[in-house]
Design a protein that fits this description.
This protein is mostly beta strands. Strand 2 and strand 3 form a beta hairpin.
Length: 311
Amino acid sequence: YANAYPTSGGMCDASKHCTMQSSGDGAVSCIGNGTTWTHPVTVWRGQTFQAEDGVKTGAAQTLSCTSCGAGARVGGLSSTATVAFQGVKAATSGANNLVVYYTNGDTGRRWFNIQVNGGAPQLFQFDPTDSWTTVLAKPITLTGFKAGSANTVTFAANGSNSPPDLDWIEVVGASSDYCDRSRWIVASSAASSLDPAPNAIDADPTTRWSSGRDMDGTDWFTVDFGGTVKISSITMELANYDQGDYPDSYAIYGSTDGVKFSNSSFTNSSGSDDETKSFSTQTLRAVKIKQTGSNRGHAWSINDLDFSCSM
């Protein structure tokens, strides 16, 4: 952020319609439309990128869209047709927040796989917008940034689900409500093509994540909060499709950096179809839920997942 109205050199001062503070922190008052405003504020937004100005590969194409930013959006994206934004600024390394502006004229959700600096894909789901010319905004948190302006953010599909069309993005910095599960980044050891990992945290118990295979004690599900949080219980709503699709047992492991998890679990359970499990407060960046039992003929699924969470 740079002050748009400094004591000298700025448009406000140069036009002489503002009285400037001697401290250099903007204006004391400004005249606008014949009225003297005595409590002016400076409004700014983050770094923005129009999708049509990004680096497109494959069949990605610019489409006319009068209601979209700059009158265009990018469609035709897939797992091999991408759009990338270079020169993305990040004040700090690690997690940063973006707002994604998109269109999705389908009746159901679509998904983006998003990579930062060529790292692991981060999967997010996007609600329908009623038409391909109606634009919605979705805030997300991405990890893998480096401090500075040499970051690249790439949008693609995940190979199993169609992506929305992309209008533009705004980079809004590192501060975040890490307890907002719409910003959490989730991953799993396996997933059915119809039941991807983000379904577990979409606050919709009629959708689910499913491993898509028999439980054999090897599957896991991770949640990266994007920053450090304090959690003291987990709530999992399970088996809304099949009453056997809950783990006979599971254990939860913590990570303070989102990469390396403890070798020892901080809680475990024998499991049930709907369960709230309390434990001593943990200060963590991420958790890994590991299914530890065996149940042939049943996959592990999570319809809704949440934590008691504070910053």
